């Protein structure tokens, strides 16, 4: 008996990481805080007919046709899929916090309908897009060129929100619902999430931390700590690859008229990954925190002295940008609704006054890029 106790003691002494492993019940928190997501002053509720109708628009939606008609390399018109999934995510989040069983059941029924209709599954995968030979910006900074890789990329983003919403409500699903939703999630992961989650070394640091956050959401659904751990590692490696020592991001920070906007996107996704690592008990490497902290300083530089921010030269190929002044966005990304709180909490840096960002972010109640409202991290649990 003494030998067994000694072995157990030595095991957790030598490998302490295993003793500290934790899978947060609700993806970004172990217990949901009293944080009701709102549009303006109105709480997001699936019982609201306007909200319900908006969510239902996603069921069976032809994303490929809509993208071909509305989008180009510079601008992705994703409102018809991003707005419904954000409303669904937020409404189920709120319903679980309120323990409103009717709203939870309604949300689950919509999740089930989306799965039953195989929604978005006709979208080509990343590998299929590559076989078509489509190149964003036409490889020569043409903003009007088609960018077919945005099709699977946005399905990956929507899939992450779908999985997060499913995880919030999993305990309330019956077996039929859980089995069908799980089958749909497995396809979403295999076709659209894994391709992004397993990539490293690509240019730019974008939505869902280049798919790593989506993979963590899938790991949360399956209680798979090992997959989450690997996704964090790959996410940190990409930050190390893309974030320059002085805080600029290759290539977000050099994308012409939208350089500051894309810079803040990269920073927001890195901060989202750091916030999740806190919830999952993952240690963020010191060099990653230093790079992200410097990146936050660069964002503040861009807000207070845009000319100086733009003065840094980029050496290398950079074909996915526009120099058209009419498309300029000299503000923090409006969907990064909690970037100020994330900077303050994890970097001890305050976001400089960015009125344009503050005004535009009021239209959003969830962060499409990281899957949750970071403001909720600062609200106490129920």
Amino- and carboxy-terminal Cα gap: 42 Å
- Provide the β-strand percentage band: under 5%
- How many strands appear in the DSSP assignment? 2
- Spatial strand sequence of the major β-sheet: 1-2
Shape: globular
Describe what this molecule looks like in 3D.
The protein is mostly helical and 382 residues long. It has two domains: 1-30 and 224-382, no CATH class; 32-197. The chain has helices spanning 2-14, 16-20, 49-56, 63-70, 79-98, 101-116, 126-132, 150-169, 175-197, 207-210, 212-221, 225-242, 259-280, 286-304, 306-310, 339-347, 355-361; strands at residues 38-39, 42-43. A two-stranded antiparallel sheet has the order 1-2. A hairpin with a 2-residue loop joins β1 and β2. The longest helix has 23 residues, at 175-197.
């Amino acid at each position: 008996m003494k030998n067994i106790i000694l072995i157990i003691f030595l095991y957790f002494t030598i490998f302490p990481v295993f003793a500290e492993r934790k899978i947060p019940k609700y993806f970004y928190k172990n217990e949901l805080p009293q944080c009701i997501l709102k549009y303006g002053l109105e709480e997001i509720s699936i019982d609201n007919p306007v909200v319900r109708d908006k969510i239902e628009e996603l069921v069976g939606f032809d994303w490929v046709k809509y993208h071909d008609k509305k989008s180009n390399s510079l601008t992705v018109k994703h409102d018809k899929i991003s707005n419904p999934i954000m409303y669904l995510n937020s409404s189920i989040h709120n319903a679980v916090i309120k323990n409103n069983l009717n709203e939870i059941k309604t949300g689950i029924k919509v999740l089930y309908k989306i799965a039953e209709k195989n929604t978005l599954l006709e979208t080509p995968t990343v590998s299929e897009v590559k076989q078509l030979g489509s190149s964003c910006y036409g490889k020569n900074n043409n903003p009007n060129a088609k960018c077919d890789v945005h099709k699977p990329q946005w399905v990956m983003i929507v899939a992450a929100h779908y999985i997060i919403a499913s995880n919030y409500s999993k305990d309330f699903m019956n077996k039929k619902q859980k089995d069908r939703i799980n089958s749909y999630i497995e396809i979403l992961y295999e076709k659209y999430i894994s391709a992004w989650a397993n990539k490293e070394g690509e240019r730019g640091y974008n939505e869902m931390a280049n798919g790593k956050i989506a993979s963590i959401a899938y790991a949360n659904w399956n209680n798979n700590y090992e997959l989450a751990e690997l996704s964090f590692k790959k996410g940190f490696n990409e930050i190390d690859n893309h974030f320059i020592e002085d805080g600029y991001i290759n290539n977000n920070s050099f994308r012409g008229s939208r350089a500051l906007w894309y810079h803040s996107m990269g920073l927001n996704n890195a901060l989202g990954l750091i916030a999740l690592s806190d919830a999952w008990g993952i240690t963020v490497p010191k060099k990653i925190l230093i790079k992200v902290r410097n990146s936050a300083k660069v964002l503040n530089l861009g807000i207070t002295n845009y000319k100086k921010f733009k003065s840094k030269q980029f050496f290398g190929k950079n074909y996915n940008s526009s120099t058209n002044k009419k498309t300029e966005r000299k503000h923090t990304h409006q969907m990064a609704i909690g970037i100020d709180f994330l900077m303050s909490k994890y970097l001890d840096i305050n976001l400089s006054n960015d009125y344009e960002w503050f005004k535009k972010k009021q239209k959003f109640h969830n962060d499409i890029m990281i899957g949750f409202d970071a403001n909720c991290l600062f609200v106490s649990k129920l």
